[in-house]
Specification:
233 residues; 8 helices; 36% helix; 21% strand; six-stranded mixed β-sheet; alpha/beta; 6 strands
């Protein structure tokens, strides 16, 4: 882990400290959860992501992966890991892909962002940029106000980006949760994301998750995306 004992050498600087904050609430079924994991495996083994990492001043990023559902349901699944080449990226993705699902509760996005803030505060890494990447398919319906958590992150110099997974055919009980007025992308832009260069990516199919995550990671690492808002999948 990144914690440094007295007298131990400092951790090397990284270009980005990135917390992946994933929604595993009950609106995400097991098949969709597996597709999310496979998407991360695809993205972190994609040459475009490795090239973006190599293109940074330090040639390295630090990544942690957090799952959240309802209040009291946040878990650091994979603690801080430095990725600087294809081998370390694949090792991280393999570990992530092998981990079981953490929760099944409601959707407390504010709790997920707060967990990301705490992870960054204790990372021990000197990063040029700090990013929380929130992925989910619905609105905040439990716990802390999501905009308050977002504002706390932005005040700390953290950029919060979003990947809104659009459910175009929701079940009746989840309709208002996954299809808020104006759409989930609009909800994320207004309530979840913020900070310099923040954006929301929208996808309409879990099977497109890997491509969307790849484009999103490249943008977060290299900052080459459209500053106006959303790379779309």
């Amino acid at each position: 882990g990144p914690a440094r004992a007295a007298g131990a050498p400092e951790t090397p600087p990284v270009d980005v400290a990135l917390v992946l904050v994933d929604d595993v609430s009950r609106s995400i079924d097991d098949a969709e959860f597996r597709l999310q994991k496979q998407g991360y495996l695809y993205a972190f083994t994609n040459p475009a992501v490795i090239a973006a990492i190599h293109g940074g001043q330090n040639g390295a990023i630090a990544v942690a992966y957090v799952e959240f559902a309802s209040v009291g349901e946040t878990r650091v699944v994979i603690d801080w890991t430095v990725i600087r080449d294809a081998a370390s990226a694949k090792a991280f993705a393999d570990r992530l892909n092998a981990e079981p699902r953490s929760f099944w509760g409601r959707t407390a996005i504010g709790e997920g962002i707060t967990a990301g803030i705490h992870a960054l505060a204790s990372s021990g890494y000197k990063a040029t940029r700090q990013v929380i990447d929130v992925c989910g398919d619905g609105t905040n319906n439990a716990g802390r106000d999501v905009d308050a958590a977002r504002d706390e992150a932005v005040a700390a110099g953290i950029t919060v980006n979003g990947l809104a997974i659009i459910n175009d055919h929701p079940v009746a009980w989840a309709y208002a949760h996954v299809q808020p007025p104006g759409g989930l992308g609009k909800y994320y832009r207004e309530n979840v994301t913020g900070g310099p260069g923040s954006f929301v990516a929208e996808i309409h199919d879990f099977h497109a998750f890997g491509n969307a995550i790849t484009r999103k990671l490249v943008d977060e690492i290299a900052r080459i995306g459209d500053r106006g808002g959303a790379p779309r999948g």
